[in-house]
Amino acid sequence: MKEKKKFELSAGEISLILYALSVVIVVLAYFVVFNPKMTEAKDLEAQNVGLQQTVSGLEGMVAREAEVIAETAAYKQEVQDIIAKYPVDVPTEKVIKIIQDMQDINGVDVSDFSVAPQNLVGSVSNVSVSDINAAAAAAEENAENPDGATQAAAPAATGIGYYTNVVVSYEAAYDSFKDMVWYMAGLDDRTTIPVISGSSDSESGLVSGSVTFKMYYLTGTGKTYKDPELEPQDTGVENIFGNAVGAKDDGSGSKDKDNTEGSEDSAE
């Protein structure tokens, strides 16, 4: 029978194996334990940097709290001042009042005028012009039929700017023409005069031409529109031609008193 050969390791081989096992354990510890912990530590460090910046910003805001409050109040006041400069609407009746004043105060003879309202100024965030027009039409429809309103509500947009474009044909003396320009320049509402033309007649000394001006307004600001105070116009049924039309002779030679007086006044 063959004798089994004993496997024996020398002290040096055992040391080498132990060294190799130590290296393997160290490598495994690095990849399994140390490396994930280092990655987690870097993430925490990055988060700490962000938190420190946030804390620094909050500390800065606290340090200038009074200044921030003052700036906020000033900003709100500035917005209110801007809103206060613009009316909530410039309808045709308001334009008629201005033209009436141009004639009465400045002595200008207005032969013709045209009004083009609701011209959009610029663009509005998140609201298209078609949306605004559709909302305006819906609001008008709902106003006419409040009980059965089925139209969509207007989009939530505030401070939408419009202007009303007005073209006036005029004739006036030169001094009255200047007074008219100064009158429009001094209007309380925000107004610009992009175009003005005129020609002078050497025989009459009158200036005639046209002037275009734009009147701006803001909607959605919470302000209410106030109707202008128009002067009452004379009305009646008096015959403008001064004839006693319809006067009846009662046989005594006298005719209708009212019509006869109207004829006498016209004759005078």
Question: What are the salient characteristics of this protein?
Answer:
268 residues; alpha+beta; Alpha-Beta Plaits; four-stranded antiparallel β-sheet; 4 strands; 47% helix; disordered C terminus
- Which spans of ≥5 residues are poorly predicted at pLDDT below 50? 123-129, 149-157, 240-268
CATH superfamily of the domain at 92-145 and 154-219: Ribosomal protein S6/Translation elongation factor EF1B
Which structural category fits the helices and strands? alpha+beta
Count of DSSP helices? Answer: 6
Q: Tell me about the biggest sheet?
A: 4 strands, antiparallel
Using the coordinates shown, work out and report the CATH topology of the domain at 92-145 and 154-219: Alpha-Beta Plaits
- Mean pLDDT figure: 74
- Strand residue content: 15-25%
Please characterize this protein's 3D structure.
The protein has a domain at 92-145 and 154-219: Ribosomal protein S6/Translation elongation factor EF1B (Alpha-Beta Plaits, 2-Layer Sandwich), CATH 3.30.70.60. With 268 residues, the chain is an alpha+beta fold. The chain is rod-shaped, with a radius of gyration of 44 Å. The model is unreliable at 123-129, 149-157 and 240-268 (pLDDT under 50). It has helices at residues 11-63, 65-84, 92-104, 129-144, 174-185, 257-267, and strands at 109-120, 160-173, 191-200, 206-219. It has a four-stranded antiparallel β-sheet with strand order 1-2-4-3. Strand 3 (191-200) and strand 4 (206-219) form a beta hairpin.
